[in-house]
What does this fold into?
Amino acid sequence: MPKAIDGGRIDLILQMLEVLRVSDKIGISFENTEYISPAGYAILAILCDAICEHGTEIVLVRSPSLAALPSYLLKIGKKGKSSFLAIEEFEFELDQVLVFGKVSSLAFDFVQKVSCKFENLLGEDKAWDVDLILKELMQNAVDHSTSERYFLYAGVNRDRFEFGVLDSGVSIPAKMETVYDCKDDIGFLKLALKKDVGTRRERVGGLGLFHMFNNIKREKGKLVIVSRFAQVRRYFSARSAEESKLKHKLRGTWCMGQIPLEK
Amino acid sequence: MIIKISERFKDDYITREAGEELRELIYSSEGDVEIDFSDLKIASASFFDEGIAKLDKDKILSKKVSIKNLFRKDFELLINVCKSRNLSIENLEIFERE
It folds into this structure.
């Protein structure tokens, strides 16, 4: 595992997911890991699900400099059989971190919990922005990706507040290519953020991601969307963007937002 | 008719499905409709889009629709969502929470 487990080095994480899907037994070493961000805890939840799904036996090597590994990761170490952990096992809370798992339905309780826990820190306006973005993201996870299990997170990462939704359902490019034509997965991700672009046949939408995008932009935050073979990153404070193809496939979509905290 | 969102939609004021239910309620009500958003922050473009911005003005010709007590940020969002749909209904009023 890398020094910091967060929303970066996506290809490395995806490579690990691929390896454990074809391995009977695998060692996961946290020896070099010094920090896990809120997004990192949610990524570890996805990792747990992949391990359980494939019944991979794991050996965990802990880090001396890392205070604690999430409880769900420790539980699968003892499990050694191919069935998922109950979704409630992924409810994980630290002083500045919330992680939550949900099956096939909207996580109203999670967004309420985020508001309660972080509104004083964020202030009313930013808390409302985070609320809106999480609601749009989880609706996408349930409606569009038809993901049965998905994970949400929110919390403080140094001088930023980060939040997001990670699912293992139908990817954005897979969904969009049924309606639109783009040359590659990067094109599909960029298109998905535009106004009036959607794939619903009933209750036509296309505004949710657009407003979410605008809210992060107004807060001068950062948005990362990873799906299938592409990732797009928008850094609104620097007005810059990065887009790249992934070497390893993500089965699903990870949407990760960040906004700066007031100093 | 008064529709208090925090009571009528207490379990879901987020989704397009809930928004569609609100829109149908507005259509089916007899006489003027007041939609009260007090005690809540909605923060959902989907709910506002489906419930309000997609209103068909021909279906509410004979009634006045008043939307009241919106949290400041919800008020801004609803106005933006309505603009996105080019909604222009003379007998629709939208008020921010005081």
